């Protein structure tokens, strides 16, 4: 049994992955902003964690809750993200930056904060 953190667990790929890994007997923490969408997953043992990956304080609060409960994180699955599509003349720079904040820098910030826990508890 692994302790797994999955972001984007309120919808789509993250939701389906959380369901699969919980059914396989793992301890799964599902992170997202809209945690109510994970109510059906709670029946499988998935623990919802409120987390906005663009907010460092939100990430830290979420990780603190996980470490308090599980004491470790073995696996991180970065499922949070969204697609914003359009011709360059129609997409604002603000929207383009917002997408990078979620899909690139949010993922990076969370991974940086999770790695020390993974190194300490899983490999050493
Ligand atoms: N589905 C596909 O076939 C496919 C193919 C290629 C690439 N992708 C990419 O893979 C990613 C996930 O796709 P999906 O289909 O699973 O999308 P989805 O169903 O829209 O789910 C997106 C997830 O990301 C979370 N999220 C968005 N912004 C967030 C934020 N600021 N902080 C924390 N969580 C956030 C959402 O949760 P909350 O809104 O509750 O926070 C939701 O759980 C996207 O980037 C998508 O472009 C998908």
UniProtKB/TrEMBL annotation:
Q: Keywords in UniProt for this one?
A: Oxidoreductase
For molecular function, the Gene Ontology terms on record are: 2,3-dihydro-2,3-dihydroxybenzoate dehydrogenase activity
GO BP? siderophore biosynthetic process
> Where on the tree of life does the source sit, at the highest rank?
Bacteria
The cross-references to Pfam families, in alphabetical order and at most eight, read: adh_short (PF00106)
Q: Which residues form a coiled coil?
A: none
- Record lineage: Bacteria, Bacillati, Bacillota, Bacilli, Lactobacillales
Listed name of the protein: Truncated short chain dehydrogenase
Q: Which family does it belong to?
A: Belongs to the short-chain dehydrogenases/reductases (SDR) family.
Kindly give the InterPro entries that the UniProt entry links to this protein: DHB_DH (IPR003560), NAD(P)-bd_dom_sf (IPR036291), SDR_fam (IPR002347), SDR_oxidoreductase (IPR051911)
